[in-house]
Design a protein that fits this description.
5 domains; 6-stranded mixed sheet; alpha/beta; single chain
Amino acid sequence: MTARSGASPKTLVDAMQASFEISLRAPEGVTDPVALLWTDADGQWRPLLAPLRNALPHLYMLGAYHPDAREGPVIWLKCVVDRTLPQVSPPPGTIPILYLPDVSRQDLRAGGDCPKYLQPLIELQYRGTMWHQRNGRDWTVEAFLTSDHGLGLDIASDTQTRQAMIRALPLLATEPVDGLRGRRLDADDFDKLVIGDPIRDLLSWLNAPKAFESRCDAGRWKTFREICFREFAFDPEQDGPTAAADALLNGDGKWDEVWQRFRDAPQVYAGLSQLLRQTHPRHLLVEPSRRPDVNEEQEERLRRELGALVSLPQSDACARVIALEEEHKERRGWVWMQLGESPLATALEPLTRLAQLVRTALGGTSPEAIAADYALKGWRCDRAALEALSIAALYAESALVARVVRTLYEPWLDKSARRFQELMTAVGVDPHKLAAGVSAEKDTCILFVDGLRFDVGCILQEQLEARGLHVRLTHRIAPLPTVTATAKPVASPAHAAFTGGPDSADFTPLLSRSQQPVTAARLRDEMARQGVEVIASDEVRLATGAEEGGWAEVGNFDKLGHVLGATVVREMKIEVEVIAERVTGLLSAGWLRIRVVTDHGWLVLPGGLPKIELPPYLVATKWNRCASVRGESTPAVPTYPWYWNEHLRIASPPGIGAFIANAEYAHGGLSLQECVIPEMIVERGEEPARAQIASISWRGMRCHVTVHTTAAGVRVDLRLNWRLAASSIVAAVKDLDRSGEANLVVSDDKHEGAGASIVALDRTGQVLDYKPTTVGEDS
């Protein structure tokens, strides 16, 4: 599934997919769920299964044994979850969604009282996760349609409307919800959906003709035929789907409207893609964007071109990628990209940015200067490479895109690293002095993120700013070697309590007062001893005003990188969201500011970093990008003083080399990606205005409102739809007086008896509170 953060869902199916994704996000330190359980006590959602199955190939339903329809009994679902049925189980990395009609969450939580046939599913509550409302209740159709965490529609609450809403559910799946906003929906609105949208019906029929026809009784099928003949000049029964697909591909006029609707929600009508593949253009003027075969031909041509350029020198490969972008960028606006059928054209956009950026070398005549240049713009190369790899990781084209990334990226990485190493070893440069420690501060919680590389830190900054937070991003240089054992203590406010021992084999400093190695537990204990408030990873503790501030940890970048190699890019987006949630939670708990720090960055290169030989007898320990030199040995690679004891030497491979073969992900050495690390201060934005409507009273068409608020500039309005300013029915929106009161006058007495809402607004027009009322009646 693809995330839809920040974008309003186009359809009910979009909203449900986004909600499923949120439910599947595992908190830090918790393994991914093995399944998402979707309980539906009354079977309300059952009519939505057909369009959802088109969009979610990993959706399975409890029912009779019909494996072709992804439906089966409890034991079959268990086999799907445990991947013992490879022919029907989802691919690795994809979490199945189990729809359980006529089963409530309470049934599964009842333990021994749970119906016997359901008892094998009980344990999935603990290995998996549930799809439910924030209050713990099952999602009903009405709750999801009206909730701000669903579609946020304004729906009347009478019985007739509820019944009509359920009848219209299959049609709501594909209806663009923008057309349903801005008014209160009632039974008539839902009934019109059932009979009033011939284009939607036509697309539903083309998507799955047999399924559509099975839902029609004789009267509805006859009406559908007549509308098709009248509006689209074809008979679905006599001419069949092939004729309609031919008209859609070659026609214009009314068929252009059909095509536009298909473009709005192609995932819902995915079956139409295969039908259009079997259709041929009748003239040369057919839009190429409507032809899946043209898109396939161009994808295949692009595949060959990209495969050929990996053997070119970097400069020639860059020029070729930029030229290919001009040829193929238009296809990213075609419907086939939304259906996942243009993965190479999609990956070409970040590949082109990478090709343009690697043409420019980083500048600077000192370590500080080149680090500043990297923090200003050099990180954009790394980000473009990660984005290209993450896009390709979703498709079978990942290996090809990875080879292209390597061709463009590796020479720039190596050249930048060698220049940085040259400056770090220049006369008069002391690497120890370049690495500054982190200090404690009252009302500030230091949030440590293991392995937060600078480019990923920039993505985090964007996420936090999108949440309305103020972020100041700076950079610092990590201590050597760039491994957690050495660098994490420097990132803590207790760094002055540590010292280097006589042995750098594992790169771990010692506690000065006890001469014990600094483990994670001892690091936290030392901070607590110094008055720092240490917060566990699974808690959001209220700020207590500790003089030395706080310390918390979050993030799994480094752990994931060592396990996944270059495919760690698949997890970046989720990890950044987890960190952003942690920052938001800490600020909400009362901390005035969060200082995000890290220990080191990392190198990632698909296919592995170049292997550098280092005889084992010269070193005490050897990691991917660093080694502890044994005694007075003289390895034929650069050496640097250990941060915690400058008399001990650390060997580091030149450029982006690695001492261990096939390392796609590594850190410990000297490169800008490992050494230039982000540090950011995050603070809340302007405190939001708050207001609460305390009372409403009517006298004829005049309404008196009292609002409790401490904010200035609050106004009140009376609207038929509290979300829609255009639905206001008062002569003028009124400012509150000093006592928090205002009088509103309804402009037309035709509204007497109508349901409406009093709305409290801030200076920008944002709704702070609303309360329903009946025009002309005491509330």
